[in-house]
Amino acid sequence: MRGDGEAFRRRYESIVDEQIRTAIESGQFDDLPGAGKPLRLPAHGDENWWIRSKLRSEGVPTDALLPPSLRLRKEIEGLDAAVRELRTEAEVRAVVAELDRRVVDFLRVPSGPRVPVRRPSADAVVARWRAAREEALAAAPPRPEPPAPAGRRPWWRRLRRGPHGT
Questions:
Q1: Cα–Cα distance between 83 and 132 in angstroms, integer?
Q2: Structural domain of 11
Q3: Is the dihedral of CA 9, 11, 12, 16 positive or negative?
Q4: What pTM did the predictor assign?
Q5: pLDDT of 67-121, one tens digit each?
Q6: How many domains does the chain divide into?
Q7: CA distance 57 to 136
């Protein structure tokens, strides 16, 4: 019985080897992307290197792999940076309200590791946003005055004096 398994394995390996050899001879492996380049394997023993490289190639942040509780905590920590470029307080409050809604949804039915997640305070975020905005405005150079409009005369004066201003 043991001999049958080895015979099958040898036969199977020979079929695979034959298909690879045929493909090489017919040039099916020529001009493949990355041909002749070394594989980019991590130096350390990261067993999830292929997941991270796939996410990088697809443009997906690695935060997508985090459990919901950790992902929410990271978003709360980065909230000040996320609202920094917003122009109005209403926009800031809308971003905080949306994140707060997701935190409340998570707290209703928590999943993943038990990591404490606090609801973001809209008033505190708005206060920090205002302070950062005032600081940025104080540090910015003053805007130059717009040029004065050209001294054109009203149309009725031009008609009264003639086409050449005489």
A1: 10
A2: 1-30
A3: positive
A4: 0.56
A5: 999 999 999 999 999 999 999 999 999 999 999 999 999 999 988 888 999 999 9
A6: 2
A7: 36
